[in-house]
From TrEMBL:
It comes from the Bacteria. This is DUF3307 domain-containing protein. It comes from Bradyrhizobium iriomotense. Keywords: Membrane, Transmembrane, Transmembrane helix. The chain crosses the membrane at residues 137-158.
Length: 161
């Protein structure tokens, strides 16, 4: 899933438990793996790779890294802003941001793992790969299905929660 989807779902989870930030962080973090199991589309990165055996230790020397970081940054900020727009009240801004960030966190941890392959990141990366959908969707179907999924979760939380 793209980071925006994870941020919106994390924000939705946070809006359900605004007085329990530890529960929000754990549930939003766990939601990442649950929704990554759904077949989806991921945008291609030019310099950063998550393939087994890839060496990302020389990333700083790769000029394509700037493009990847800009794309990832835009995606993360867009998701965070959407989560804030949908779920924040004056009393809940901190916990909504926490939920959105926790929902996105497993993906940046993959980059950290590729640069520094140590425990507990090794186990987390193995789990992330295991839960991740093996089937990839084409970008038009993949991005629209993610938008529909995030909209559905948001609608359910906003009407029921």
């Amino acid at each position: 899933m793209i980071l925006s989807t994870h941020a919106v779902v994390g924000g939705a989870i946070a809006s359900l438990f605004p007085s329990h930030p530890v529960l929000v962080a754990v549930a939003a973090f766990a939601s990442h793996f649950a929704i990554d199991a759904i077949p989806h589309w991921d945008y291609p990165l030019r310099a950063i790779t998550f393939k087994p055996g890839a060496n990302n230790r020389r990333l700083l020397a790769d000029p394509r890294l700037f493009f990847d970081l800009a794309l990832i940054g835009f995606d993360a900020c867009a998701g965070l802003l959407i989560a804030i727009w949908l779920f924040v009240t004056p009393a809940t801004i901190g916990v909504i941001v926490l939920g959105a960030l926790a929902g996105m966190t497993p993906d940046p941890l993959q980059v950290v793992y590729k640069v520094l392959p140590k425990q507990p990141l090794t186990t987390l990366q193995r789990f992330h790969r295991w839960t991740h959908a093996k089937r990839r969707l084409s970008w038009p179907l993949g991005i629209s299905s993610q938008a529909l999924f995030a909209a559905s979760v948001s609608w359910i939380v906003l009407t029921v929660g």
